[in-house]
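Q: what does this look like with zinc ion bound?
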Amino acid sequence: MLRCGLICLACLVVATSADAQESGWKAGFARVVITPEQPMWMSGYGGRTHASEGKVHDLYARAAALQDASGKRVVMVSLDLVGVPKVMSERVSAAAKSKHKLERADLMFCCSHTHCGPALDQSLTHMLDMKEEDWQQVVANQKWLDARVTEAIDSAMADLKPARLAAGIGNCGFASNRRPPIGTGPIDHEVPALRVMSSDGSQLRGVIFGYACHNTVLGFYQWCGDYAGFAQLYLEERHPGATALFFSGCGADQNPLPRRKVELAEQYGRMLALSVDKVLATEMTPISGAVTTRFREIPLEFSVIPSRDELVKTAESADRYQRTRAKLFLKDIDAGKPLSPTYPYPVQVWKLGNVNWVALGGEVVVDYSLRLKRELGQGQTWVTGYANDVMAYIPSERVLTEGGYEGDTSMIVYMQPSKWKSGLEDQIVKTVQDLAKP
Ligand SMILES: [Zn+2]
């Protein structure tokens, strides 16, 4: 009986390595600290009045490099940051192209949208009431951040080793729709997860997972990855040697409720990590086949562009955000740069075996993930928001019509000229469908 057991075990090992050879995947991971080295302004809330004061835990840039049997390589980056400035993804992409021959479509920049991370260069920065020297610190820190992200990509690429990939979907219940009446609107409690094992199946090397909820339990003056930061750290603690990478789903209209206590951020982080662990322990669907990548910027239209006369009037507004926005625009116009009627909105689709992995820019409301899953296939479609460029909220047609913060007024803090023009939901979904075609 013992001999039979040994033989079966031997069969398993042989089958496992044969699978790994057949699948031909390789994977590499890296994690670098991006906690600012000096106290500085934080991002996410316009009401803060001074720089940071210490930390709950470190902030990280994590990278996962994947290579299919044909040698095609992609890198997903997960950042404990409030957003991804367009200039950052462009600068880091340029470096990755020259060093690793990665095209723009082969890189996916995701962020957790923590509101306890550093102020970023040209992304939600103008909402902050900073002095000139604070601005200079933000610009200098951005250069350091870009270099750290590049370092994470380089290290993940250098770490590529044969691997086994599998996908699954779990569930976690703490997100509530925050639009009034609170708790009654649509939600998306799915937790998509990609498991990456060593080629012999003995070691978890990495896990990529997502959740659709604002990462805003906390809003104080200490560096913290919030619930997503805790979830990543719990998973890495539970699986020594593994890297856990979070991506925000379409959670722009979802909040973790109740909130505002570190214990609650820990609790939600633990809940999310447990949901991921539950998926990892189930029979997941092996990823076979190849990875294909597509990326396109589409011109999303604003509903109205203010005239110079209107801006001159608004520049005297009692509202700080309105005033700042009008002055910024006047400066551009007077420098010969008229306001653009459109914004180049990034849409990306990766096909990872049978999984359609959609990555959309901006703070995307939940209607998009629910619709895209219906249209592209439930159980095999993942939708990431806050990816590649976070320039504004992205309301669905429903939320745009209803108005409120996500549909309208948030455009002021994002320093965009007006709300989006009706039609954006169909334009974005049609682009995704195009990019997802075989
Ligand atoms: Zn937000």
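The longest strand covers residues 161-171. The chain has eleven helices and 17 strands.
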